[in-house]
Structure formats: structure tokens, C-alpha cells
Write a structure and sequence with these properties.
The chain is mainly β. It is built from 3 helices and 30 strands. A 9-stranded antiparallel β-sheet has the order 11-12-13-14-30-24-23-18-21. The chain is globular and about 60 Å long.
Length: about 350
């Protein structure tokens, strides 16, 4: 007998009580469960079944809600206005220089010091016969973190009865600006028993990537993955690639690369990546309308971060698979444009499909 699909919402305080948000929990008819906050749009947990139908949490996170307010690693959060780095924290737009908050050395990263991961969104839950979730609303004012234009943003989280979590993004602006939104959950499909993702198998539907310099800014080149440790065009176990002597992998301490998705002309939602874990049998297949996906193996968790259930999270303890436009696109005319003008609408969709590997 299948569980009854459900949706719950709870008003909560985070930390000392000055931060008030909602906790929203949705469950599918198969028992899959997703919990997320209106603070930062943070996904706290995703409980997905293994080959024996046992549910376990497959995303990294903190034990306490208060820890999310201090988290520097964007665990589970929505990212904006711009996912990835912008070189020199500046770009030219219509003949004038726009200066942004520099929060990663001289560069701008993931929306600045107070990006979309640090704000309380307004949530509107919905519940239908085969799906349930919430629409999150936030208005980013003109000049926020340096970006021009008043940006009105909607992000919709939808959990279906087919074990699919769909994230839809929409934004409009009243002045020209750059927009690049993503979701920053770290996956480990082994669940609570997990140590790291070395034994996971990864496929990335990309024959090219954007190499970076020593400060992690793309060089502008679209380099073939063939013959490198970044060739995941056929499924490969992640561990040996993390330990390789590939110059890009050594420089970033693991995977921290933007892959250029192979996209047929005129296509919409395409395969981006597939992640599998051998013991549980869980598989995650990601489809997106975006041109790229950033694979990041939590390389910065160097000193260990307190995680759920007392677990210490170190490097490679999870992998973020961030569907996005390319980093530094505002300064690279050859990259797909992230420019949004008044009268236009930014739209993006990413679907995370959980299943059992064959």
C-alpha cells in the first residue's frame, strides 16, 4: 500500500530568534520526502528509496537550523543573482562599468556576501493530485550586491509521485542586468552511512568544459574533455579521477569544473548528468534547460564540518551538480549570454529524477 502524499508547513525561528522562516515538507505517493526552508530556499533533506525501498537522506546538511545561517558553503541553498564567479567583481554593461561585491578574493561569487542563499523567501505551498511543493518569491532591489535593476524572482520546487524533484526558475527586471540561478545541494546517494562519494559513478553529458586559471576564473576556452580526468562522457567511478594528476583537478583539489552540455540545436530539457551509488543502488539523473553544469566535490571542506547525526563532512563527502550558465559570462562574449533586459523573462528548469540503477 502506497503512502498518502502530503504537504506540511511550519513556522520556525533560526538561531537566536531574529530570523523567522517556514519549514515545508512534501511527500510523494512512493514515500519520497523533501524538506526545505523559505530561508535561502535551502533543501534540508531528500529521502529517496534504495533497491530495497528503504528511505535515506541523500543530501548533505547541518544538524541544527542555526548552522545554516552561518554556513559559508551554500549547502542546499538557492544561488543568485549570479551562480559562479565573475572576474574582478565587475562587468561592462551598455557602456558603463558595474562593480559588484567582491567576496572571493578580488572576484564575485554566488551572489556576493548576501546572496539569495541569505534571504527569506515568501513561500506559497501548493498541493495537487500527482505533485506538491511551493513557489518561493523574492524581490532583489536595484543595487543589491552591486547588480543593477529590480529583479523579481520566482522559484518553484515540485515533488512528483514519480520520485522527481523539479526546480523551475523565473525572473524579470526593470533594468538591464545579468542573471544566473542554480541550486546548491550536495548529493551522496549512500545516505546516512556514507563516508564520501569516491565509489559513486558519474556520467556528464558534455564533450567540453571551461578550464580555469589559478583563481578559478574561466580562461574563455572551451576545451575537449577527451584524454583528461574530466571525461565523464561514459560513466566513470569518481574516486580515481579525484586522485589523478590532471592539472585542472590538482588546482581545484577535486572536481570544480563547469561542463559544456552537449545540446542538440532547438532542444529544451536535455540530459545533464547521472550519478549512481553501487551499494544502495540509488541513481540520480539530472535534466536541464541550462547550457552548463558545475560539478563540485566539496573540496573546501578541509577541516571537517559538523553534519547531520554527528557526521563530520570533509572533502569529497558529497558532490554538487549545479545546472547553470557558465561562470564569468558577463565578461566572456563568446559564452552563452546571461543578460536580461526589461520586457524579457528569465526561465530555467532542472529536473532531478531518483531511481534504482539497473
Amino acid at each position: 500500500m502506497n503512502p498518502t502524499p502530503s504537504l506540511e508547513r511550519e513556522r520556525i525561528t533560526i538561531g537566536a530568534g531574529d530570523l523567522v522562516a517556514e519549514l515545508i515538507t512534501v511527500r510523494s505517493s512512493s514515500g519520497m520526502e523533501v524538506r526545505f526552508l523559505t530561508y535561502g530556499g535551502i533543501i534540508l533533506s531528500i529521502k529517496a528509496p534504495d533497491r530495497d525501498s528503504a528511505l535515506d537522506d541523500v543530501v548533505l546538511g547541518h544538524e541544527s537550523l542555526a548552522a545554516y545561517a552561518e554556513d559559508p558553503n551554500y549547502i542546499g541553498a538557492l544561488i543568485g543573482r549570479y551562480a559562479g564567479r565573475i572576474a574582478g567583481a565587475r562587468f561592462a554593461l551598455d557602456g558603463r562599468e558595474i562593480r559588484l561585491t567582491a567576496n572571493s578574493g578580488p572576484h564575485h561569487l554566488h551572489g556576493g556576501r548576501r546572496g539569495f542563499d541569505r534571504v527569506v523567501w515568501h513561500g506559497e505551498p501548493f498541493e495537487e493530485a500527482t505533485e506538491r511543493g511551493a513557489v518561493l518569491h523574492y524581490t532583489s532591489q536595484d543595487g543589491e550586491e552591486g547588480f543593477p535593476g529590480r529583479l523579481v524572482v520566482e522559484v518553484m520546487y515540485t515533488l512528483t509521485n514519480d520520485n522527481e524533484l523539479v526546480v523551475d526558475y523565473r525572473a524579470t527586471t526593470d533594468a538591464p542586468t545579468h542573471v544566473n540561478l542554480t541550486q546548491h545541494s550536495y548529493f551522496n546517494l549512500a545516505g546516512a552511512r556514507a563516508r564520501d562519494i569516491s565509489d559513486h559513478t558519474l556520467l556528464v553529458n558534455a564533450s567540453r568544459f571551461t578550464p580555469v586559471d589559478s583563481t578559478l576564473i574561466p580562461t574563455g576556452e572551451l576545451r575537449p574533455v577527451r584524454g583528461t580526468a574530466l571525461d565523464f562522457t561514459t560513466p566513470a567511478v569518481i574516486g580515481p579521477r579525484l586522485a589523478s594528476d590532471d592539472a585542472q583537478v590538482r588546482m581545484t583539489g577535486g572536481l570544480d569544473q563547469n561542463f559544456v552540455l552537449d545540446r542538440p540545436i532547438g532542444s529544451d530539457l536535455v540530459l545533464a548528468a547521472r550519478l549512481e551509488e553501487p551499494v544502495s543502488g540509488r541513481a540520480l539523473t539530472i535534466y536541464t534547460t541550462e547550457p552548463g553544469i558545475q560539478a563540485y566535490t566539496a573540496n573546501a571542506f578541509a577541516n571537517g564540518i559538523p553534519g547531520k547525526g554527528g557526521r563530520s563532512l570533509g572533502p569529497w563527502s558529497g558532490i554538487a551538480l549545479e545546472t547553470q550558465h557558465f561562470p564569468n559570462s558577463p565578461n566572456e562574449p563568446s559564452f552563452p549570454s546571461t543578460l536580461l533586459r526589461p520586457g524579457e523573462a528569465y526561465r530555467s528548469r532542472t529536473a532531478y529524477r531518483f531511481s534504482i540503477a539497473e
